TrEMBL record:
<dbReference type="InterPro" id="IPR020103">
    <property type="entry name" value="PsdUridine_synth_cat_dom_sf"/>
</dbReference>
<dbReference type="GO" id="GO:0003723">
    <property type="term" value="F:RNA binding"/>
</dbReference>
<protein>
    <recommendedName>
        <fullName>Pseudouridine synthase I TruA alpha/beta domain-containing protein</fullName>
    </recommendedName>
</protein>
<dbReference type="GO" id="GO:0001522">
    <property type="term" value="P:pseudouridine synthesis"/>
</dbReference>
<dbReference type="InterPro" id="IPR020094">
    <property type="entry name" value="TruA/RsuA/RluB/E/F_N"/>
</dbReference>
<dbReference type="GO" id="GO:0009982">
    <property type="term" value="F:pseudouridine synthase activity"/>
</dbReference>
<keyword id="KW-0413">Isomerase</keyword>
Length: 52
C-alpha cells in the first residue's frame, strides 16, 4: 500500500550539498531517506516542494 506523508522540516545545511540528491556530495534528501528507510525497513523516496 502506497502512502503519502507530509513532513515539515527545517535544517541547518552548511555541511551538505543542498536538499536534492547529488552525485558529488551528501544531501539532506539522501540522509533523510536513509534514516527513514532504516526505520520503516523498506525503500522510500522523498519529494521536496517549496522554497526558502
Amino acid at each position: 500500500v502506497e502512502r503519502k506523508i507530509k513532513l515539515l522540516i527545517e535544517y541547518e545545511g552548511s555541511a551538505y550539498h543542498g536538499w536534492q540528491f547529488q552525485r558529488n556530495g551528501l544531501s539532506i534528501q539522501e540522509v533523510l531517506e536513509k534514516c527513514i528507510q532504516k526505520t520503516v525497513k523498506q525503500k522510500i523516496t522523498l519529494h521536496g516542494s517549496g522554497r526558502t
